[in-house]
Amino acid sequence: MLDPAQLAALAAVHRRGAFDLAAADLHVTASAISQRIKALEEMTGALLIRRGSPCTATETGLRLIRHHDEITLLERTLAEDLPGLAPGPTTLRIAVNADSLATWIIPALAATEGFLFDLVIDDQDVSQDWLRRGEVVAAITSHPGPLQGCDTYPLGSLRYRATASPAYISRWFPQGVTAGALAKAPALTFSDKDRLQTRWANARGLSRPVLPTHRIASSQAFVDACLAGLAWGMNPETLIAPHLAAGTLVELLPDTSLDVALFWQFTRLAAPALQPVTRAIRQTASAMLV
User: pLDDT by residue (tens digit) across 18-47?
Assistant: First the structure.
């Protein structure tokens, strides 16, 4: 039988990236964490943690971490069914894209009780990979699946608009938004995984091999950068609605939104324990997404 304390140590080292940080999370010494990992590796006959800065789990280690997460959620469901067992707060690790975090996901999480949330922020196009590797129990993703061992619910679409300040439009697009102008006008990119600006340009027949871009990994900073005239960017409509109404931001081309479909995907074994979160996310998405 696998020792729950050893599995918890493995998960903590991988997620915190260091033995001392894992020890602080679990309220034990770093030596105790090291001993638990060593015992688990000896029992399984496999290397589970790559020591380094940060420490990361091997493929086998990730499989054991997924097992740990599933058992934790199953025990929570059992505790809810047995009056004598009072479940404590359960930590849920979820992959969420930054724009959902900035616009609609927080009210959904706030509508649930008894959970602590460990949010992994990554692009919606790759968040499913976190779930596939077993590093999270659920994800907001742009991929409908199917993914083995997982269930998926469609949530609706997050609507984006290509926006900039009026002064920026006057400076960089005096003759209108053309492919040639886009080749010179600075854009905003969240990370190398972000393709929204290119997708919008391609849909307008304005594709360029490379868009000149600032890289800023913050949804709110995207809005602030556009307001300041630093660049143009794809901003969630709900985040910039007041600025569009006030005229401090305008669309590069009127009525040319880009809708990104989102899905709630989660491990099937975790489904019973996730029911309150799943219900809140679907209700909030229904109210706030397209």
Answer: 999 999 999 999 999 999 999 999 999 999
For residue 189, count CB atoms less than 10 angstroms from its CB and return exposed for 0-12, middle for 13-18, buried for 19 or more: buried
- Kindly report the CATH number assigned to the domain that includes residue 23: 1.10.10.10
- Which helix (H) or strand (E) element contains residue 107? helix 105-110
In a domain, 132, yes or no: no
Tell me what pLDDT residue 121 has.
94
Return the sign of the alpha-carbon dihedral for residues 186, 192, 197, 203.
Answer: positive
Q: State whether the Cα torsion 199-225-262-17 is positive or negative.
A: positive
Structural tokens at position 163 = 């926006």
Find where tokens 């340009």 sit.
Answer: 201
The pLDDT mean for the chain works out to 92
CB of 123 within 8 A of CB of 256? no
Structural domains of the chain, count: 2
SS3 152: strand
Residue 131 forms part of a structural domain = no
Give the residue numbers spanning the domain of 203: 158-260
Reported pTM: 0.85
